[in-house]
Amino acid sequence: MALVLVIDDASTIRQSLRRMLASTRHTVIEAEDGQVGLALFREQHPELVITDLVMPNLDGIETIREIRRAKSATKIIAMSRHSVESGAPHLTAAKKLGADAILAKPFQGAQLIALVDQLLEPGEIATNSLSPPVANTDPILEISDPRLLRLYYYWLERKGNRRWPTRRDIDPLDFGYVLGNVMLVDVLVEPLRFHVRLHGTTLAKLAGYELTGKFLSEIPIADFRNQVIKRCEALVASGDRMVVHQDRILDGRSHAYEALWLPFSDNGSDVTMLLCAVIYDCAQAGERTTAPAGPLRPS
């Protein structure tokens, strides 16, 4: 068990990392920028610092520089979004300045935990091996496209302290920057069926068919239809959020896509609607994307 300092200006990312690290019996302290982080570092002497690189007041590069100037043996993991804010050069600089390891966002929770175990002393690794495996059900670290990340923050904001938001909590005009890539699916029961309330214009054009007002069972491509229905059934059963990275054949060509699935409930106990936002040929496949102007944009 170790004391870990997490520095990131995005509170949602700090909370996600806290949950993951706490599940492996680490104690976590948080800071919203490098200035606050350095104060905590000097006061509490953590064994490990996990820091974002692009932050206000004092960025991660200067934070790492100051920690190494203190001749501290504290291990450092630097992280930054690879396709936004020039993340790759920042990570390279962080490594040269003394970061023990670097992580490009998005990354899997299991990647982080494995890296933490590698950096800590053998005694710490042995202690952690007694704890159960980490189940990373929060997709925030797996989202690559900035539009999907912004949409996910919007969903979290509307959800509040509840497990799910309701349909009435959202206004499609609030996410007009991605609305053409959104599908809203009503969940009908007895028997379980999926009715498409909205099939975004971009998705309909790419697919070559329109689903608004129809059921998912009417998707004309059998393999894809079965895959989507099974995914919806699993999400209704679990109530989880999900990020999917896959390829799909459209117009005879393979297109990489990233999909974010988000559940809603109008009764507080069952999933009654699913929102799916799909970005084709996204940054995950090598094409750069830029986030639209607006709040809730992490580094």
Key phrases:
single chain, 299 residues, alpha/beta, Rossmann fold, Beta-Lactamase, 2 domains, five-stranded antiparallel sheet, 9 helices, 33% helix, 23% strand, disordered C terminus
Q: pLDDT under 50 segments (min length 5)? A: 83-87, 122-137, 282-299
**Strand fraction band?**
15-25%
Tell me the number of helical segments per DSSP (H or I, 4 or more residues long): 9
CATH topology of the largest domain: Beta-Lactamase
CATH superfamily of the largest domain: PAS domain
Distance between the termini: 29 Å
The CATH class designation of the largest domain is Alpha Beta
Number of domains: 2
Largest sheet, order of strands side by side?
Answer: 2-1-3-4-5
Order of helices and strands: EHEHEHEHEHHHEEHHEEE
Backbone CA Rg: 21 Å
| CATH-derived architecture of the largest domain | 2-Layer Sandwich
Query: How many beta-strand runs?
Result: 10
Q: Give a short account of the largest sheet.
A: 5 strands, parallel
Instruction: Give the class from helix and strand content and strand pairing.
Output: alpha/beta
Which range best describes the helical content: under 10%, 10-25%, 25-40%, 40-55%, 55-70% or over 70%?
25-40%
CA-based shape: elongated
Overall mean confidence score, pLDDT: 83
